Amino acid sequence: MPHARPAVTAPHPTATDLSPHRRWAAVAVLMLGAAIALLDTTIVNVALPTIRSSLQAPEATLQWIISGYALAYGLALIPAGRVGDRVGHRWVYLAGIAGFTLASWWCAQAGGPTELVVARVAQGLCGGIFFPAVGATIQVLFTGRDRGRAFGALGAVIGVASAAGPLVGGVLIEQGASDDAWRSIFYVNLPFGALAVLGALLLLPRGAARRPAGPQAGEQAGARAGEQAGAQAPGGTDLGGLVLLTAALVALLVPLIQGEGSGWPPWTWLSLAGGAALLAAFGAFEVGVARRGRVSPLVPPRLFSHRAFTGGVVLALVYFAAFTSIFFTISILWQTGLGHSALESGLVSIPFALGSIVSAAQSARLAERLGRGVLVLGAGMVAAGLVSLWLLLAVLDPPSLTHWTLLPSLAVAGLGSGMFIAPNQQFIVATVDPEEAGAAAGVIGTAQRIGSAAGIAVIGSVLFGSLTVASGSPADLAAGFGHAAAMAMAVSAAFSVAAFALVFALPRRPRRG
Length: 513
What we know:
By secondary structure, the chain is mostly helical. It has three domains: about 15-210, Growth Hormone, Chain: A (Up-down Bundle); about 240-295; about 305-513, MFS general substrate transporter like domains (Growth Hormone, Chain: A, Up-down Bundle), CATH 1.20.1250.20. The protein contains 19 helices and no strands. The longest helix has about 30 residues, at about 145-175. The chain is globular and about 65 Å long.
């Protein structure tokens, strides 16, 4: 009888090797990375006026600082998720968070506007690389109620980090003693990024480990079915589709951001037309990739055979274009137009942030009771808040505006936003077949970030395009920026009203399971 070989101990823990305490410690590492990435989507808003004066940056640069980050982030999500499935999400998370930390240092060291924009694009790209690994690793580490608790905690961290961004940025800039105080909003990422890298090396499981065993027979059967489907599915990364989509979006965003400052020369219109043509070419290319079946298409065309899903993707684009741009407009008005500090600008966002946190905590319960009604109510409240905010900016004399003036409108919009953002992806994914849910979720996440980038491009173009200042006196600055902010907020309000109308394309209740 042959002797049994001794078991070989893996140098790094797999998911099944981890104790419950070790798993939750791993989740804490994942949440730290998620918090840094989401904090950086909002913390920059209050720093824009300081960056403008410190680097003598043109208006278009301010838009690129936000849009470049969001666009690169969104485009990296789907390819990074697929690479993680093949090589292990631990390595993708490590590479992404390390790159994000280095890019944060680059942003802090930037010596000019162009260098800062390039560093922000690199930062967004790295954020999009590691973020899919957060959810994928939680899926591997937990089952049943523990998985629900982990995702619930992740949602709370994301909400708090996003909401806290403007206030944290205001505090950091206020503590600075020079025009370079904005650099602190990037330096603050360095110790947390280093801690996340160290924690990932020590705690995250290696490879695509099996899910922990448990009594949920249905869940185990679903996992086996998913593994069988994954074994039959084509692999590889659709690099051609990624290049076409990136080129199309850049061709559309460049004229939207640069056109106003350049006086809309012929190249801007040619670029817009070329971007539309590239989008059409991308669609045709994806159909061909799906037909050949050798590589998984970046955006599976079959998803758009569901008209409700198509409406849901447009909803994601329009909604994120509306709400991401609110504090871009308010920050420019509050600091450059009205002469307030970065901290005061950050304080303006508190009613929105608190409302969003409170309602997000209750959104799952409300979705269970109201179904699609929770999205209708949430989107309606956002639209009402932004329309009333636009009316306040259009009617009131700008110097009379205070935190208290905007508080009711921002609180209503914040409550609606928290109620909407948490469950909306669940409802959009419910419009497709269960085996398509993973691909659908990836497309929606990308659409949300592209919507953010496009929203800043459009609203920034309207804000600076309608800006006319008679002189440098405080009264003229307030009047000029007040009018421009009202015009920009009108566009954000229009986007929010369109999002409210699109909610009715979604199913009344999400599919279970």
